[in-house]
Amino acid sequence: MTTLAPERLAIELRELRRKYPDPTVWAFYHPAPWTGPAELQVDGKTWRVRVGATPLAVCEAVAEAGGHGVVLLSAVDETALPSDVVARLGRQRLQRPDAWMTLMAAFKADRMAPWLRAEHALAEALLAVAPEAGFAAAPGGVLEPDLAWDELFRYRFELPDGRPDAVTWLAIAVDSTRASRFHGLPDALQKAVVNRAMQTGGPLGADLARAVIAGTGMAVVAGGLLAEIVYGEERDHRDVVTAAVRLEDKLGLGPKLPVARGLDWFQAACNVEGTLDAHSKAVVRELAGRWLDELGLAEHAAGSSVLEAGLTARLAVLAKALEDASKPKGKATNLEAAWQAVERHALAVSDHRRSECWQMAVRLTRWLRTPAPATAQDLAEAARRHGAEGGWIDRALRIVGEG
Q1: Which residue has the higher pLDDT, 131 or 181?
Q2: What number is the average pLDDT over the span 339-343?
Q3: Backbone angles phi, psi at 10, to 5 degrees
Q4: Euclidean distance between CA atoms 290 and 232, whole angstroms
Q5: How far apart are CA 172 and CA 149, in angstroms?
């Protein structure tokens, strides 16, 4: 049995009095124990709350009402009560609280989408935060799920709407104030919120909603930065498979996220990380770097296009390729691929000085491997060659030397 919350009872009474202002005794069928106060304040009027566990107790409560406002919670059905007692009740019957009927009035609706009837947790959550002036009016008088969720997220979670995608859930996760509003939700409401996340953000949205509810905080963004490695090209490597399982377990995700969902998680994490302040970004990256080692992914760091460890690993590959290409009769088989991997790294793009140093090293290596041209025939040709090649070679040597 579910007990009726005082806030819910007050809303029910307020709605009844708007339609039927005269009765002074309102009775509700309520077989569960009452844990609320002895009085309720509704629209400036004090109503005494009385509990009737037996037909006799109900009769006594009605008889004692006089002209005072009384809310009677009866554990017995009206069929067990005398007809003269029932006649003194508002609408001459026991009211049976219907959350959605009450909410339809709050939304100024006369109809509702039939599938909302099954959303009991949503209804109870809305009643708990219903403003006295009511929610936004239902367009055309029809209450649809989108509006119901919009208003719940607005009043319960202080978010602009109830249609969060995966990026929104990650943005909530890194904001401790917003994330805290999802902690400690009743089990039924947790399930309803996750189902809503599935509708608006797909399976990844549902996974991240669970992570927010579990209180993972910034860790779910740090894990997203690692997702590029664990769901990337080396995902079938034994170490990476093990790391994926451990990462999902840390964050309450999975088990075994599909590759596409894992890579979507990475993209969403990058989007959110890009909006963080310097301190929060440092916290996320420090955690991602620590987990890289803890999960045994250090050897696969080159798979990251965003982490410092990824750039370091890619530069190590490039350095080896440059060394091989610069040896007498050495091969440059991997040089271009290694350089392209460095160019694709986000930090290489942002760190222009370091990137330029390596770029010049690659250009010099290419130039050194190019067969020497024939000797210039005259001073004019020599000048042209120096303008085309010699100038940048001198600059490259200077940059690499300073690098």
Answers
A1: 181
A2: 86
A3: -65, -40
A4: 19
A5: 17
Three-state SS letters, 263-318: HHHHHHHHHHHCCCCHHHHHHHHHHHHHHHHHCCCHHHHHHCCCCHHHHHHHHHHH
Q: CA-CA distances (angstroms) from residue 334 to 45, 147, 304, 316? A: 83, 57, 19, 12
Rounded Cα distance between 149 and 159, Å, is: 11
Supply the pLDDT for residue 4.
75
Percent of the chain exceeding pLDDT 90 equals 58
What is the band of 1 on the pLDDT scale with cuts at 50, 70, 90? very low
Q: Two tokens at 208?
A: 């991240």
Residue type, 267: Q
Residue burial 274-311, b: 16+ Cβ < 10 Å; e: rest? eebeeebbebbbebbbebbeebebeebbbbbbbbebbb
More confident site: 324 or 172 = 172
Phi-psi region of 73 (alpha: psi -120 to 50; beta: other; left: phi over 0): beta
Q: Is 182 helix (H, G, I), strand (E, B) or coil?
A: coil
The first and second tokens of residue 289, run together, are 């770097």
